[in-house]
Design a protein that fits this description.
The protein is α/β, with parallel strands linked by helices and 322 residues long. 37% of the residues lie in helices and 25% in strands. Strands 2, 3, 4, 5, 6, 7, 13 and 14 form an eight-stranded mixed sheet that branches. Strands 1-12-9-8 form a four-stranded mixed sheet. Strands 10-11 form a two-stranded antiparallel ribbon. α3 runs parallel beside α4. The longest helix has 18 residues. The radius of gyration is 20 Å and the shape is globular. The N and C termini lie far apart (45 Å). It binds N,N-dimethyl-L-histidine. N,N-dimethyl-L-histidine binds next to β12.
Length: 322
């Protein structure tokens, strides 16, 4: 039971997730969504600029190089909803190409108000765009956009950056099916997926030599200290990136470098870590092009086109709701 006195609703669910995840009898886990507080979001932005992390640049190359071609395959006019817009930087070229063709309403959907503000600054000067930011969970925000659609105007949903890879496969399948259920036949989804690549390349992307990804991961314990009165000593945990070849995913863990007991006051929890025991904090699945086609089919879409970056294997996939 978590003491609810003086906890905000957000703190209560954060505390409950921490309590469940760290009390597991086997592998301890924390949900990766908590990596993204203000500090974590800034660190993630730095990750996207690291030479070892080619994912974001690959997607930017595809969107820049093929914006006209992508737009030519879409109906006009349409409304754009972006799930997790981040700064809006990589979407800019695509939005420009859409707005040249037709005035376009753009709904960035983000739980972070700071990201929404950044996104408005980044794309607000595009001619003929109207921006309506929604501070919501992805599917709640999308449901709102879909409910407000006028005269059957088609929707383009953007889910970029291979964020789908942070869901485990059953959760990804559920998410895509729910997303599809909010759409009408003919609506489009542009989905970014990071592709399989040599294991050393993947591992370097999630364990960079200057330690930005380590800081991003450790910040989760810092956040528990700050927001839930935790007592983690960050120097007693190490960032670890592992590749699981069967699941085809890279995993981030935080490994306790000694036996220790940690109290987290607002989660009403005192938890023991053995030396070498880890907390699993994130998975990032890597796909084949065939995986993406299968996912489209099993969630009620057909894959209209795939654009692949060969410098950093990454695919931008245009799916049409059937
Ligand atoms: C947001 N997401 C797609 C990133 C990824 O590559 O899985 C998060 C990340 N974690 C560590 N580095 C980047």
């Amino acid at each position: 039971m978590i003491a609810s006195r003086e906890l905000t609703i957000f703190e209560q669910s954060f505390a409950a997730d921490v309590q469940v995840g760290l009390s597991r009898s086997g592998q301890k886990e924390l949900p990766s969504k908590y990596l993204y507080d203000t500090v974590g979001s800034r660190l993630f932005d730095v990750i996207t600029a690291l030479p070892e992390y080619g994912l974001t640049r690959a997607e930017e190359r595809i969107l820049r190089g093929h914006a006209a071609e992508i737009v030519a395959r879409l109906q006009a006019p349409l409304t754009v909803a972006e799930l997790g817009s981040g700064s809006g930087q990589k979407t800019r070229g695509l939005l420009e190409a859409l707005c040249v063709r037709h005035p376009t309403a753009y709904y960035p959907i983000e739980i972070s108000p700071a990201a929404l503000a950044m996104c408005r600054r980044e794309v607000g000067d595009i001619q003929a765009i109207s921006i309506l930011g929604l501070e919501r969970d992805y599917l709640d925000g999308l449901a709102e956009v879909a409910a407000a659609r006028r005269h059957g105007k088609p929707l383009l949903v953007l889910f970029l950056g291979s964020t789908i890879g942070n869901f485990d496969p059953p959760a990804a399948a559920n998410f895509l099916q729910e997303l599809r259920s909010l759409l009408q036949p003919g609506d489009a989804l542009l989905l970014g997926t990071d592709l399989e690549k040599p294991v050393p390349v993947v591992l370097a992307a999630y364990d960079d030599p200057i330690g930005v990804t380590a800081a991003f991961n450790l910040n989760l314990l810092g956040r528990i200290n700050r927001e839930l009165d935790g007592h983690f000593d960050l120097a007693e945990f190490d960032h670890v990136a592992r590749f699981d070849p069967t699941a085809r995913r890279v995993e981030m863990h935080l490994r306790s470098n000694r036996r220790q007991r940690i109290a987290i006051e607002k989660a009403d929890l005192s938890v023991t870590f053995e030396e070498g025991e880890t907390i699993w904090t994130e998975s990032s699945h890597k796909y084949s092009l065939a995986d993406v086609l299968r996912m489209a089919q099993s969630s009620g879409f057909r894959c209209e086109a795939q654009w692949v970056d060969h410098e950093w294997p990454f695919a931008e996939n245009l799916w049409i709701a059937e």
